[in-house]
Design a protein that fits this description.
By secondary structure, the protein is mainly alpha-helical. Helix content is 69%, strand content 0%.
């Protein structure tokens, strides 16, 4: 069985466990679900060619679930789940400088996209790149692509929110 499929099944199990866990275990399960979700999103990529609209939608749904879970983490929990990279001089310190502007024990919430943009970790960087590629591909399929947009981060996540809002308003059931 491909690695991406194994991670995806593990992620689905973690989501089910998260619903049934007691509050004192919930933080650990949340961190585990986010980690496995990011690994699933990054790993499944290699086995999935994303040529049809259904593949795009499945990837967007997975992306939405992972981002939703991530937004419930605190910066301290995020660091414990995805350690800051220390490849170049100053990597760790520049990331920690960004962290000092935040409450380390308060959930990241709606700031998750900006938070990840300034966060140095290989898994998170790969997750962001692949997220943008999927969002871009969905827009191209839907003929909504606008090359004049200058902020890729703002553009990508605003498209995601619009697509999710449209699906919700049309009563489309979201499945993994």
């Amino acid at each position: 069985m491909p690695k991406g499929e194994l991670y995806l099944r593990a992620f689905e199990r973690k989501l089910n466990e998260l619903v049934t866990t007691h509050s004192h275990e919930r933080v650990t399960e949340l961190m585990s679900a986010v980690f496995i979700g990011v690994k699933a999103f990054n790993s499944e990529w290699e086995e999935n060619d994303l040529r049809d609209n259904e593949s795009f939608k499945a990837r967007l749904i997975l992306l939405d679930k992972i981002n939703g879970l991530m937004s419930n983490l605190t910066p301290r929990q995020f660091i414990a789940t995805f350690p800051i990279a220390k490849r170049n001089a100053g990597d760790y310190y520049s990331t920690m400088e960004m962290m000092r502007t935040m409450d380390m024990d308060c959930p990241i919430g709606d700031e998750i996209e900006e938070f990840m943009f300034g966060y140095l970790n290989e898994d998170i960087s790969l997750f962001q790149i692949r997220s943008f590629v999927v969002i871009n591909a969905v827009e191209r399929v839907n003929d909504n692509y606008d090359s004049r947009k200058c902020s890729l981060l703002e553009w990508g996540f605003s498209i995601l929110r619009k697509n999710l809002a449209l699906e919700y308003s049309q009563g489309i059931e979201r499945k993994m």
